[in-house]
Amino acid sequence: MMPFPFDITATEVRARTGVLKTPRGDIRTPAFMPVGTAATVKAMTVDQVAQTGADIILGNTYHLMLRPGLERMERLGGLHKFMGWTRPILTDSGGFQVMSLAGISKVKEEAVTFASHIDGSKYVLSPERSIEIQADRIGADISMQLDQCVSWPAEEPAARAAMELSARWGARSKAAFGTRETQALFGIQQGSTFENLRRESSDRLIETGFDGYAIGGLAVGEGHQAMCEVLDYAPEMLPADRPRYLMGVGKPVDLVEAVWRGVDMFDCVLPTRAGRHGQAWTWAGPINLKNARFAEDQDPLEPDVPCPASQDYSKAYLHHLVRADEILGKVLLSWHNIAFFQALTAAMREAIAHGRFEAFRRDFHARHTSNNQH
């Protein structure tokens, strides 16, 4: 018996829309999860995040274990209470940040040992420790297994070794997690761009048995086309009756193409990171508010996105804030971008529900391509 029922309400070819039901609220899919790296979606209040329509956010195990620290996090009642977010939270396992951020990391069968990028202090992260951190200390609604993600491009032997280690770590993560009524655990498919490795990874994950399944090891430099080629086969290797989560993705066009290929959940730092650097995502593609052409543009960013930042401020004002490096500029553009990503997933849910997703996808590409912003 799975702890979180997943009801798929409509499909169009491989695209699906549905609801993942959790004790802290429903997650409507396709879903985009804003990234709350260090107990905050950068430059936004939790009320602003909720107003955009986000059903769930993501927390970063690696960053939280370094600051504020896990014992303190537990004493303060877990991440939901600490940051004031009452809806579901998914946490990553910490593995990706260990590989990419930690000063020195050493991967062995038992665990990965690494040095903090903040002060160089030593930490050990095993599958069991990762589950303890996510499920017990942070209090995540959805925890992720510890996995090893290889950088791109990867030779097949290295990709196979990482995939096999991830599969063994997945089984250990599941054993440590056990059976819980109000929390779920997702396994992670690995295998780089090798179809045979992705198939083997999926088979081993299904044998272990998880509440949901993620597609890992993409958005690591392979590019949009190569990612789509993997997504042509990878999602369908995973159980159709459970959520499929594409980790760390991505741009709006990535989301549209991944949903077309059967993906349900996404997360990415892009909306807030772009916002802090003066970039806004619109239905016609991304625009850079630093550009002089916006200096006297009195139109709002995106009147079709139901968000004060999208509707109530002129591009001229936003241009001024960005050029003057005012904090408000970063706040408003981050808010707008998160709202745009939520509007995009809402539009995809509606299109699939009414059998219009093929037309939506075609129209989306036409608008982006005509503006040369793709």
Count the DSSP helices: 15
> Which outline best applies?
globular
The low-confidence runs, each spanning 5 or more residues with pLDDT under 50, are: none
- How can the largest sheet be summarized? 8 strands, parallel
Instruction: Report strand order across the widest sheet.
Output: 6-5-4-14-13-12-11-10
What is the number of strand segments?
Answer: 16
Give the DSSP E fraction (strand runs of 2 or more residues): 15-25%
* Oligomeric composition of the shown chains: single chain
> Whole-number radius of gyration?
20 Å
Overall pLDDT metric: 95
Helix content: 40-55%
The termini sit apart by: 43 Å
Estimated structural class? alpha/beta
Mind explaining what this structure looks like?
The protein has 374 residues and is of the alpha/beta class. Helices cover 42% and strands 19% of the residues. It has 15 helices and 16 strands. It has helices spanning 46-51, 61-66, 70-75, 78-83, 95-100, 127-138, 156-177, 195-208, 224-231, 252-260, 270-276, 308-311, 315-323, 327-353, 357-370; strands at 6-12, 15-22, 25-29, 31-36, 57-59, 89-91, 105-107, 112-115, 122-125, 142-144, 184-189, 212-215, 244-246, 265-268, 279-282, 285-288. The strands form 4 sheets. It has an 8-stranded parallel β-sheet with strand order 6-5-4-14-13-12-11-10. Strands 1-2-3 form a 3-stranded antiparallel β-sheet. A 3-stranded antiparallel β-sheet has the order 7-8-9. Helix 7 runs parallel beside helix 8 (195-208). The model has no long low-confidence stretch (mean pLDDT 95).
